[in-house]
Amino acid sequence: MPELPEVETVRRTLEKLVSGKTIESVTVRLPRIVRRPDDPEAFAMLLAGQTIRSIGRRGKFLRFVLDDYVLLSHLRMEGRYGVYPAEEPAENHTHVFFRFTDGLELRYRDVRQFGTMDVFPIGEEWRSEPLHKLGLEPLDESFTVQALRNAIAGRTTKLKPLLLNQEIVAGLGNIYVDEALFAAGLHPERTADSLTRSELNRLHEAIVQTLTDAVNAGGSSIKSYVNGQGEMGMFQQQLNVYGRKGQPCVKCGGPVEKFVLGGRGTHICPACQPVRKRKR
Ligand SMILES: [Zn+2]
């Protein structure tokens, strides 16, 4: 599932490929992708004639800013965008087509069909589902140590589920929570209220650094997407613990372990991330 860095890479790529283009028509082949308005015909009517002014991101949501509307798009498990000449045959599982006036087409493909699209009049998107409840934006300058402290202070929740909660910090998923906790040297079962001041500082720095590194890694892959114009979205990121069960820890050389926490596969180095229950 794409997390903040992958969505940010898609955002940057889309901005290069489709920003400034005017939508001539929209075709929805799978109505369930479109949530708002709930009629795909109405969705297409709203977007026809609109020019894409910019493309933003909030958490894992892409935010296409048009003349009068904002289109929010969540890729969920396997949603992908690609830009093609309109006459080129569409691949299987292509559900939404944005035909531009210049003959190109932005296509949304989603094998698992979990992705969503919502259209709002500009500005209204912040006041409704799905954006209004989102928590801190970790690559925004507003994401300070103090902001993180305020968001998690006193909570008895374990760090892993806490950081997966989009209403606390937006954009982290299973991969980057494991990576950030490893970078911070914190066990995923530690609770927020057990963190010392310096541990909280480390957690904050680890979240920012882990995501920044991943965004930069994605950025270096953008060029090939732009040249190829094909499907964009995934890139191979160097991961330190996630998916490395049994392999040597990059810090200490001991084996990386995997266990299930809150239903999610969780990767740690038990030596670098000791379970330490601090009495409050
Ligand atoms: Zn280690």
TrEMBL record:
On cofactor binding, the record's note says: Binds 1 zinc ion per subunit.
What sequence ranges are listed for the domain FPG-type? 240-274
Formamidopyrimidine-DNA glycosylase catalytic domain: which residues?
2-115
Q: Which cofactor does it need?
A: Zn(2+)
Q: What residues bind DNA, as annotated?
A: 93, 112, 155
Q: What is its EC number?
A: 3.2.2.23, 4.2.99.18
Q: Which GO terms describe its molecular function?
A: oxidized purine nucleobase lesion DNA N-glycosylase activity
Q: Does the keyword Zinc-finger apply?
A: yes
Tell me the domain of life: Bacteria
Keyword field contains Zinc: yes
Provide this UniProt record's keywords sorted from A to Z. Answer: DNA damage, DNA repair, DNA-binding, Glycosidase, Hydrolase, Lyase, Metal-binding, Multifunctional enzyme, Zinc, Zinc-finger
Which Gene3D superfamilies did the record assign?
1.10.8.50, MutM-like, N-terminal
* Family matches, as SMART domains: Fapy_DNA_glyco, H2TH
Annotated catalytic residues:
2 (schiff-base intermediate with dna), 3 (proton donor), 60 (proton donor), 264 (proton donor)
Which Pfam families does the entry mention? Fapy_DNA_glyco (PF01149), H2TH (PF06831), zf-FPG_IleRS (PF06827)
Q: Which reaction does it catalyse?
A: 2'-deoxyribonucleotide-(2'-deoxyribose 5'-phosphate)-2'-deoxyribonucleotide-DNA = a 3'-end 2'-deoxyribonucleotide-(2,3-dehydro-2,3-deoxyribose 5'-phosphate)-DNA + a 5'-end 5'-phospho-2'-deoxyribonucleoside-DNA + H(+); Hydrolysis of DNA containing ring-opened 7-methylguanine residues, releasing 2,6-diamino-4-hydroxy-5-(N-methyl)formamidopyrimidine
Q: Which family does it belong to?
A: Belongs to the FPG family.
Q: What does this protein do?
A: Involved in base excision repair of DNA damaged by oxidation or by mutagenic agents. Acts as DNA glycosylase that recognizes and removes damaged bases. Has a preference for oxidized purines, such as 7,8-dihydro-8-oxoguanine (8-oxoG). Has AP (apurinic/apyrimidinic) lyase activity and introduces nicks in the DNA strand. Cleaves the DNA backbone by beta-delta elimination to generate a single-strand break at the site of the removed base with both 3'- and 5'-phosphates.
Self-association and partners? Monomer.
HAMAP family associated with the record: Fapy_DNA_glycosyl
Q: What is this protein called?
A: Formamidopyrimidine-DNA glycosylase
Originating gene = mutM
